[in-house]
Design a protein that fits this description.
This protein has about 375 residues and is of the alpha+beta class. It has 13 helices and 15 strands. The chain is globular and about 70 Å long.
Length: about 375
Amino acid sequence: MFFALLLIAGSLQAQKQFNIKGDVSKVKEPIYKIYLSYYANGQSTTDSSMITDGKYAFKGSVTDPVMVTLRASYVADTATKVRKMISFKRDITQFFLENAKIKVSNVDSFGNFTVKGSKAELENQKLKESTKDITEKMNSLSKEYNELYKKKDEAGMKRVDEEFDKVDAEMKLKYKEYLVANPTSPISLYALQQFAGYDIDAEVVEPLYLSLTDGVRSTTGGKEMGEKIEKAKKTGVGVIAPEFTQNDTLGNPVALSSFRGKYLLVDFWASWCGPCRAENPNVVAAFNQYNQKGFTVLGVSLDQPNAKEKWMKAIHDDKLTWTQVSDLKYWKNDVAVQYGIQAIPQNFLLDPTGKIIGKNLRGDALKKKLEELFK
């Protein structure tokens, strides 16, 4: 009986771990090492494994299925001693990891792979198959955008941006359809996260969140999603924007409520953010046109610690003449955390009472909204 209990205990312990065994013997380029990384329970985990006879292995434990990334590092060129630059398509393997015995086989390139042993990954493959056509559209548009960017064709980039938004809406609809049809799926939370995106519409997302099982909602990831939805409720169109105070470039505290009486664009950006810097001329134009009519801007920067000079230089270079605040905490900026900011640029348009009347208004959208307000 004692030995039987030991065997049962050992079996349960094994089920609480993942055991990845990989085979790269068929990959054309000689691989030196494999790096593993994933984010779970609020922290990042990394590991590495040397290649021995075309094989590698990883062991560990996860509380819930999580997307894991494996990256190949190749043997250095004998002449130049330089290793290959990383290509996402060629050198990255991504799949859903769970506590199980998992076999990964790579064919001809590290990015061409099969996975056995993960039920979550089987569901992920079904989901990927249902979105295959849309993914191809996105890849095609991304390639076209890059070509237009090289040519500095702004009209073309704008057109592709608009097409991409439509295709992105199609993709999100697919995630919603999957979630509704598979509420108990091991990747149900992942599907919800993809549908919700970085700008969460609480009215639409919360009912789907509540459709998840109690077990999924009680996980660390499930709780984080619940917190994001609660923040989204407090920053949705029609509510009074949450009050905050943060120091300006001279170290003086600036309160959001001090702008009452004017239409205010609360603009989240950073000097290191390319899309933010590209959008700044549109914000400058809007400010210059409507500032004397009762419109102003409050910039909230997510610049990094010890990077005040870069922040100040960007303000000067981009001619941002309105009030700027920051605590230089990067993504942990107190206001950004309070407002649930997960990507930048993002903005909130407030009316003179402090009520949010628009979100993420950029380019022509901001121009049209201000024209409507200041007819």
